[in-house]
Amino acid sequence: PQNLKCLTHNLHKMVCTWDFSSRGRRRQTDFCYTTNDLTPQVCFKTKERRAEIPVPESSITVTIKTPGTAFATKEFTIHQKDISFVPVTPHILSLTPGFPTSTLNLKWSDNGSVFPYGLDALWQIQILRKEAMEEVTQVAYYSKLTHEDVILSWNWTSDIPLECTSHYVKIRCYINATQFVGPKDWSDWSPAEVIPGKDTEPGGSGVFPLDAVVAVGSDVTFCCVHEEDQRITNMTYGSKSYTMMQLSSRSHAIRVLNASASNSSGTNVVCRLENGMDGSVVFVGYAPDTPQNLSCETSNFLIIKCTWKPGRPSGLYGARRTKYSLFERISSKNVSCEVNEMNRDRVCGFPVLPDQKTYDFILGVSNPIGQAQSSLLVDITQRVHPKTPEKLTVTGNNSTSIQLRWFINGSFTGIRLLCQIEIVSGHSEKKLHNVSMPGGKSSSYTAQLNGLHPNTKYQFSVRCSAADHFWRWSDWSRGLEQTTSEAPPS
Amino acid sequence: DSHIQYERVGADVTMKCGSMDWDAAVTWTANGTDIDESHLNGSYLILKNVDLSQSGQYSCYEGSSWHLKYQTNLRVGTPPKEPVLMCRSNNYPKGFYCSWHLPTPTYIPNTFNISVVHGTKDMVCEKDAVPKNRCHIRYIQLFSTVKYKVTLTVTNALGKNFTTLTFDEFAIVKPDPPESVVAKPVPNNPRRLEVSWQNPSSWPEPESFPLKFFLRYRPLILDQWQHVELSDGTSHTITDAYAGKEYIIQVAAKDNDIGTWSDWSVAVHATPWTEEPKHLTTEAQITETTSASTSSFMAPPTTKICDKGAVVGS
Amino acid sequence: MAAPDSPSTALRRRDLCSRGIRLAGKMRADVVDLLDTYVEQQGLDASASVAAVEGVPLAAVERWDEQTGTQRLLENLAAYRAFRALLAQMLEEQREQLGEADAGLGRALAAVLLQVSAFAYHLEELLRLESRGVPSEEEDGPPPLPRLSLFEQKLRGLGVLRELAQWAVRSARDLRQLAKPSPATGTGPGLAESP
Question: Is A323 part of the contact surface with chain C (CB cutoff 8 Å)?
Fold first, then answer.
């Protein structure tokens, strides 16, 4: 026996192999080993030229006896430094494609249970593409072994749609066992896992990505998968023709840099073939801006109306439009807002909740490209903006005083109202008369104006607001004209 | 045996005297006239930068025996340029014809081959006896959105070229101009002219495929035409003519629903009726000035006329 | 051979036909305008050849001049019912994809849909005039439309509008055939025999 070599995958066991100086029929051999003088020798018979034995702390003595041959016995002393440590070839547990986002999710076991705690493991993940399996990227991934089998997960976003051509992933690992003095090496590469491209599927033709939404300024690759016998004449993005790259015999691609905003129906990516055409639509827009000037008020203590400035238009419409939702943290109530993307002002209504004055709003804004939010903490009793007073009428009238009545829609029972009456008469300038009164529930309010001139035509109008914590006046009511009666003869 | 040798204008031509050696004594003639020794290189005839005038029969005779050793017909010409192809339906819905010509002559024989494809169907283009550069296709389908693709390939000894036209069925419908245009004054109406015409005889089914018409008229003394579009009928009375002024009148036609306007019809002239001058002696005759004289054919309008998307003129 | 018409029926048919011809002409003009707007708004190539789209009735017909009047009316009716469903689908997709953006295109589509519905009703009237059974909608109803990608939806829309523009011309021609006085009696021919 000669050329004894030992290799370990897990720092516990090692596999030793040898060969014989003379060739000949495979013989039964006696294989014995002992790690040091204290432990008894372990022997077993084998016809193989390999044997699995423990990895020694420092050295191990191996005796190989081949009965019935000259020079039958050979003894070897193997030191740890002579033993190679090559981790076992890792196996990919799953490779999951995320077609809409062109992402790959890789999961594998770190096989940590076979190693002592706390070893540093370095993984290399290799992504390959096309029929020729050209390397796209190679990434290093670090993990710490915990003496348990841990499933590691890693995501990768491809710069081209996964449908365009097949993608392959391989991994290998290197374990930095500092206490092990023997030579250490990378494991073998794992078998490659593949995500087949559409160019491997019969009838898989089309333009990809299909109906994607991307941010303005993105660099995007589009590919045209076609049948083997079809000759592709050109690929256009919008109205511009682009130079094509061949990915496989059934797949060609173009690369669009710094994509500009598309119109409402999206930008067409068209692949013209000898006898037909295929296409896709891409919507290039903006992520929503953070809503500005978020403000909430109530006009009737029934509905809280929040408004805000949306910022830059997203350029996305219909199914891809920017969507708004109003979440109130205290009540955990969420309301989605119906917003017309064509007009600039945004409004959303939230119901006034019983026995809740303070509202902690989060206005959430999202579209397929991104999201944003604004928040507002508000006490609605300090945000009362009554509706315009209606049905302003005169309920009493004499030569020097007039009693007015008006109606305000809304429930103000919890607060006091401050109303301002504008008094205009022919020969005097405009006067304002303030009056405050307890709020009612969709009720009328009255005020008495004294000190008027007899037989004089007056023009009245009224507006109201919250008496405590003024926020905003209502609009002025419609004007009312009334003449005081003549003074009684003195 | 004499054969034809085609060469491009401007080419350098070398002719060998059949199987004679380079240094053999020979005599070359062009159309029977001896060629000067300066054109010879040994027994080879060298013609530099040939032009059209050098086409002709070239013969080579052995020096002493005057035995004809080689003869060829040199034809100097050019490869064909991209041919000009035009397709039109003037007898819709029967079919359409395509005609073609070369933008510049090639001075050597050319062969034309035309293919007509409708979607995936090859259609037969039946060559017209006269003119030779025209053929016609019968519609198998009507009202089709599938485009017609016509490819004309022209080949001669010096090269090949082709032109392709792709069009919709409706786009090439262009009737011939209206025929038998007549314009007459209306007695006792000094400002009226009565114009009548007929559908072009080439239009097969005016009842099912009615034509509409476009009338233009102007007094000879003015340049500005007046127009009137008529959706049916083949006559019209002009009611705003200048009294006593001679008018020139033309009519164009178009399918009621599709295609483009025809060229303008032959122009006719007419002068509205005028009052018989009172003091004139009895002999003065006022002859009706009805004439349908043919003025020089007015070049078809090349600008768009009324109908959206309709372009007249070829 | 159907018995020739009574004068009143012939008069009524000719009236219906001429109104139908005018409606077809107006519809075609509106569809052609809509086609221009649609092509521009959808970023399509006006000269693009669009393969026959499933579910879209083809106006192309062979031996058109040999069709009987009933064939003409029934084929027209089936086509315009199909276009009604196709245009309604386009309108729905339009709202879904664009929301309030480009409401102009939505309005134009709705206007053409209205005309197509009116024309279908007109054809039914003509069939009733000839005491021909009007096929019920289920019999004629178009098959459910397959879910398409956005680009395929755009192409289908282009195909629908192009075919509708062709149909409008064909319908006008068909109605002219129907309106043609019968040579023998000078009255309108029975539908069965109006080549």
Answer: no
The CA distance from A222 to A429, in Å, is: 73
For chain C, the farthest-separated pair of C-alpha atoms sits apart, in whole angstroms, at 58
User: Are the beta carbons of C62 and B145 separated by less than 8 Å?
Assistant: no
- Is residue C74 assigned to a domain? yes
User: Which helix (H) or strand (E) covers residue A93, if one does?
Assistant: strand A92-98
| Residue C100 domain flag | yes
Question: Which chain C residue shows the shortest CA-CA distance from A262?
Answer: C43
CB atoms near residue A116 (< 10 Å): 14
The residue type found at B133 is: N
How high is the pLDDT of residue A65?
Answer: 84
CB-based contact, C158 to chain A, within 8 Å: no
Distance (Å, whole) CA B244 – CA B225? 17
- Integer-rounded Cα radius of gyration of chain B: 31
Note if the bond before B93 is cis, omega within 30 degrees: yes
Give residue-wise pLDDT tens across range B161-187.
999 999 999 999 999 999 999 999 999
Show the tokens assigned to B304.
Answer: 């768009």
Burial degree of C92 (CB within 10 A; 0-12, 13-18, 19+): exposed
Q: Is residue C18 part of a domain?
A: yes
ipTM of the shown complex = 0.75
- Distance from the Cα of A213 to chain C's closest Cα (Å) equals 12
Q: How many CB atoms lie within 10 A of CB A284?
A: 24
Residue whose C-alpha is closest to residue B158's, from B11, B7, B56, B4: B7
Name chain B contacts of C25, Cβ cutoff 8 Å. 256-257
CATH of the domain at C42: 1.20.1250.10
Tokens representing B258 are 């599709």
Across the interface, which of A267, A277, A318 has its CB nearest the CB of C96?
A318
Q: CB-based contacts of C145: which residues, under 8 Å, 6+ apart?
A: C54, C55, C85, C86, C89
Cβ distance A281 to C41 less than 8 Å, yes or no, reads: no
Regions of chain C where pLDDT drops below 70? 1-5, 132, 138-146, 182-195
C150 touching A, CB under 8 A?
yes
Distance of alpha carbon A341 from alpha carbon A333, whole angstroms: 24
Under DSSP, the state recorded for A411 is B
Q: What is the pLDDT of residue C180?
A: 81
* Minimum distance, in Å, between the CA of residue C161 and any CA atom of chain A: 17
Q: Is the pLDDT of residue B296 over 80?
A: no
β-strand pairing of A220-225 with A206-208: antiparallel
Which residue intervals of C42-102 are DSSP H helices?
A: 69-98
Cα B255 to chain centroid distance, Å, stands at 22
Interface of C with B (CB under 8 A): 25, 28-29, 32, 47, 49-50, 52, 58-62, 64-65, 159, 162-163, 166-167, 169-170, 172-173, 176-177, 180
Q: Which residue has the tokens 């007459």?
A: B184
Find the angle CA(A188)-CA(A193)-CA(A199) to the nearest 5 degrees: 140
Domain ranges, residue C104 = 9-58+66-135+147-179
Q: What angle do CA B210, B211, B212 make, to 5 degrees?
A: 125
Handedness of CA A176, A179, A180, A182 (dihedral sign): positive
DSSP string, A434-467: EEEEE--BS-EEEEEE-SPPTT-EEEEEEEEEES
SS3 (DSSP) at C111: helix
Q: What is the mean pLDDT of residues A31-55?
A: 84
Residue of chain B whose Cα is closest to the Cα of C169: B257
- Give chain B positions within 8 Å (CB) of C162: 145
Q: How many domains does one find in chain C? A: 1
Query: Which of C50, C95, C100 is the best substitution to test chain A (most A C-beta atoms within 10 A)?
Result: C100
Chains that touch A (3 or more CB pairs under 8 A): C
C2 found inside a domain = no
**Whether B244 contacts B271, CB under 8 Å:** yes
